[in-house]
């Protein structure tokens, strides 16, 4: 099974890497490896990698900043 994990550098993502690795081929990305705000790149990456499962542990967590960047926060978190 091929698993795509986003948000690998966060607290949850770090733990998920350890948990998911024994289940199959783990393809883990952090913010610098896969920009979730760039929907074109995200789409082409998913198509190229063809994962069986996608686990999204990425999140926009700067609460005060999110109010000023509502569209970006919604895109990353939703």
Could you characterize the architecture of this molecule?
The chain has 78 residues and is of the alpha/beta class. It has a single domain, classed as NAD(P)-binding Rossmann-like Domain (Rossmann fold, 3-Layer(aba) Sandwich). It is 45% helix and 18% strand. The chain contains four helices and three strands; from the N terminus they run βαβαβαα. Strands 2-1-3 form a three-stranded parallel sheet, covered by helices on one side. The chain is flat, with a radius of gyration of 13 Å.
Number of strands: 3
Domains, number: 1
- Rg over CA atoms, rounded to whole Å, is 13 Å
What number is the mean pLDDT? 92
Instruction: Report the β-strand fraction as a percent range.
Output: 15-25%
Sheet bearing the most strands, described? 3 strands, parallel
CATH class: Alpha Beta
Task: Write a short abstract of this structure.
By secondary structure, this protein is of the alpha/beta class.
Notable traits:
alpha/beta, 78 residues, single chain, 3 strands, 4 helices, 45% helix, three-stranded parallel β-sheet, Rossmann fold
Layout of helices and strands:
Layout: E1 2-6, H1 11-20, E2 25-29, H2 39-49, E3 53-56, H3 63-68, H4 70-77
Parallel strand pairs: 1-2, 1-3
